Amino acid sequence: MENLSTTCVIAGGGPAGMMLGYLLARAGVDVTVLEKHQDFLRDFRGDTVHPSTLQVMHELGLLEEFLKLPHSRITRVGIDIGDRHFQFGDLSHLPTVCKFIAMMPQWDFLDFLAGKARQFPNFHLLMQTEAKDLLAQNDRIAGIVATGPQGHLQIRAGLTVAADGRGSILRDKSGLKVNDLGAPFDVLWLRLPMQPGDPVDVIGRLQGGQMFVMLYRGDYWQCALVIPKGAHDAIKAEGLSKFRARLKAIAGFAADRVDQAITDFDQVKLLTVAVNRLEEWARPGLLCIGDAAHAMSPVGGVGINLAIQDAVATANILGPVLQKGVPKFSDLKKVQARRMFPTRIIQAFQLLVQNRFLEPAVLKSDRTPNPPWFLKLFDRYPLLRRIPARFVGMGPRPEHVKLAKK
Ligand SMILES: Cc1cc2nc3c(=O)[nH]c(=O)nc-3n(C[C@H](O)[C@H](O)[C@H](O)COP(=O)(O)OP(=O)(O)OC[C@H]3O[C@@H](n4cnc5c(N)ncnc54)[C@H](O)[C@@H]3O)c2cc1C
User: Fold this and answer.
1) Measured in angstroms, how far is the CA atom of residue 14 from the centroid of ligand 1?
2) Atom 2 of ligand 1: nearest residue by CA position
3) For the whole prediction, is pTM greater than 0.90?
């Protein structure tokens, strides 16, 4: 068993873990990030980089270079219900440097952050290294037990951060209590080819009891079909041709590509949706952030944003302590005290949308739903579209980088 030691060990190289790793390394803290996959080319997140995340990149002096990466920009958000299009978000008036959502695959975002973090000699990124358990010492978490390409390793640290996402193993091992808030749907994740003349956009469609979202990814569409929770096996059992017919009914202009593109169920990935949160985000020596502390559903496309905001708040609160020594339990609790409010608000919004609208109008119906009153309102009065734009684009209690570079 190899033994390593560091000031802060972070399990998970997703948005929360990579951003925290970068911010701490930039402030001179010795930090080690473990990512279980060998690269960031994973497809289990959306592609949204929100105005508040772009603001953080601006505050870090990284924005200009970041925006040179291929991306598309969304300033207006809408949805098609049956044959009608409803606009409900207008980001063009946000008080942020970027008044748009940058649509960029998460692996480009994470590769970029990793590249910047690697410039600091005190940043260590261990790819293909999976956290398996917590190390405990004198009633305190003292690091992580992991397996990597060279076998088992123990990493001792003054602070252990679980940023290992909605299936967090460290959260399970910690014994911290999770409150499950329920999610009545899962997502089938698949690709359809782009064709010349396609719009460069995010497309949301609701029709005949189905919901379909298409994310523009340059040379293909990343698509999400919303299905009732647990329905995946039954859909597979119905066979490929029924599944293709289901897709064709909802894919709009891309329906003509379904037969050619979907030839096997292996091309269709099930992404399980969960909405939950920890009662307590910390134990002495251990802090959970991002989806490990509060799993977010795809509703509103805000989970990545919230994970980044957690990372910024954590760095602001704990960075100065880590520069001098080991944070106390009371320091760790300050992170939850700061971030619980936005988490509650955003999850309440996600639950409202999924339980009051998605469940009755899509998951338990086979008809095209009547547009809800609030969509009609936003569509009719353009000024009102600034409200959802602010909620989704910036979120409640946006964080700013306070931890200085060393
Ligand atoms: C179907 C679906 C679509 C979504 N679409 C969007 C969207 O469009 N926009 C949006 O903002 N949010 C979206 N979300 C929510 C979003 O994916 C999460 O809220 C966000 O990714 C949380 O970031 P995170 O860093 O906390 O965790 P994650 O992004 O899950 O990252 C965790 C990382 O930890 C690694 N890891 C896991 N276990 C270990 C281990 N034991 N050891 C080491 N590494 C480990 C994983 O490989 C991963 O890289 C979506 C969610 C779902 C389910």
Assistant:
1) 6
2) 298
3) yes
Spans of all domains in the chain: 2-181+274-393, 185-271
Q: Which of ligand 1's atoms lies nearest the C-alpha of 48?
A: 9
Q: What is the spatial distance between Cα 91 and Cα 75, in angstroms, rounded to a whole number?
A: 5
Q: Is the dihedral of CA 278, 281, 286, 292 positive or negative?
A: positive
Q: In the CATH hierarchy, which top-level class contains the domain 2-181+274-393? A: alpha beta
Question: Residue 120: which pLDDT band, with cuts at 50, 70 and 90?
Answer: very high
Choose the CATH number for 185-271 among 3.30.9.10, 3.40.50.460, 3.40.50.2000, 3.30.200.100.
3.30.9.10
Tokens 């279980």 appear where? 36
> Across all residues in the chain, what is the average pLDDT?
94
The answer to whether the CB of 303 is under 6 A from ligand 1 is yes
Cβ 36 under 6 angstroms from ligand 1: yes
| φ/ψ (deg, to 5) at 149 | -60, -30
Q: Is the CB of 163 under 6 A from ligand 1?
A: yes
- What average pLDDT does this structure show over 283-307? 95
Identify the helix (H) or strand (E) that includes residue 12: none
pLDDT band at residue 213 using 50, 70 and 90 as cut-offs: very high
DSSP 111-136: HHHHHHHTTSTTEEEEET-EEEEEEE
Q: What is the pLDDT of residues 57-92, one digit of tens each?
A: 999 999 999 999 999 888 988 888 988 889 889 999
